Every structure is written in C-alpha cells, then in structure tokens.
Amino acid sequence: MVGMFIGILCVFLAAGCASTGSYLKWKQIDTAAFLGSDAGKQAYNAIRFQTFGPNAEQLIGYFLYRDGIEVVTGEGIPVTRMGRKTLEEITSDYYGVRKSRMETSGSNLVLREVYRRDAVVGYTASDLNIDVQIWDITQDDGPAVLRLVYKDLRKEAEPFDVRRHRNW
Q: Is residue 14 part of a domain?
C-alpha cells in the first residue's frame, strides 16, 4: 500500500515538473484569404501529426513554423517532419493522405495563427476535431522551443455490450 502511494506521488511530481511553460494564444483565420496573402505564399518548416488509438480513421494536423524555432511533441505523438512547405502544399498533402487511406470522415483544415510575444510564430492547420495547443517551453534566453500537444475531441465509442445486441 505504501509502495503504491509513493508510486502515485512520483507520477504527480513528475507531471508537475513537466508542466512548465506558457500556453501560446492563437486566432482562427480565413484559410482562403490567407492563401491569397504574402504570408500564405511563404514556405514554413512543417510537421504533420495524427491521432492514434481506438478509432479506425485517425485525424491529421499540421504545424507550420518559422526558422529558429524547435518543436517537440512527446507522449508518442506520431510526427512526420516535412521540411519547408506552403499552406497550399500542406492542404494538398492533407487531402492526398486522406485519399490514400480511403478515409471518408474528417473536416476541412482549420487554420489558426499562433502568437509568441505578440508576434506570429506559426500556424496550426488541423481537422476540426483536434484541439491543438502550442506551449512555449523555452529555457532562459535560449532559442525558442515550443511543445505541441493535442486532444482528440471525438467522443470515444461505447464499449460493446452483448446484452444490448442479442437480436443479431
């Protein structure tokens, strides 16, 4: 019993130490208007991430960010580093990946600009059902380090109950 208590306490302490950083604010922007702007034509460093778990179709998201920034994920998030891409290339990749997987669900990409110290540092482009959060975990005056985390907003499926499905 004491061992379990100490184990639980260690988990809480580790979680408290890992939660340093500040949540970066964002603003949703019009994707079509952004594509027509100068910023929309620029290439940014890009990563693609996706949900994982019990759902047959996994949701896809992207983070496009400026040079001089390091992005970390953790927690087993499947990430593909894509090099420098424009939003148009990201949109094309999104629909290409969904088509190759023969996926039928999913939304159009929702585009948000992410701010650090009142300046845009990047853009998230993701399915509507992913809550993407970017945290600034930069230490002291070092180079900017951002942590990407997300939550799959789809409702988890109810467990299968044979008693409710007897009339098969």
A: no
